[in-house]
Amino acid sequence: MEESREYLGIWVTRDGYIKHQLLPGNRYDEARGNRQSAYVGAYRVTGNHIDYKDDTGFTADGDFRNGILYHAGMVLYKQKQNDHEQQ
């Protein structure tokens, strides 16, 4: 699987409740509220599309459009490096 470096990092909902950390090596770690690592698994980016498969076998997908990740009815924004402000 190829990595898309532009997508690596933390993607967060506007309210900060859900955070997807897209890691090198095509792994992800999703936090929900105070629950760290609520979902952990693999991902694959093809063009602007992302497919997720968590370690229990559950699958989901999403699309990156104009610097925003649309995933399962959620809208996530990439956090800037070295701070917790959203782009």
UniProtKB/TrEMBL annotation:
InterPro entries: Atu4866-like_sf, Uncharacterised_Atu4866. Gene3D superfamilies: Uncharacterised protein Atu4866, PF11512. This is Protein Atu4866.
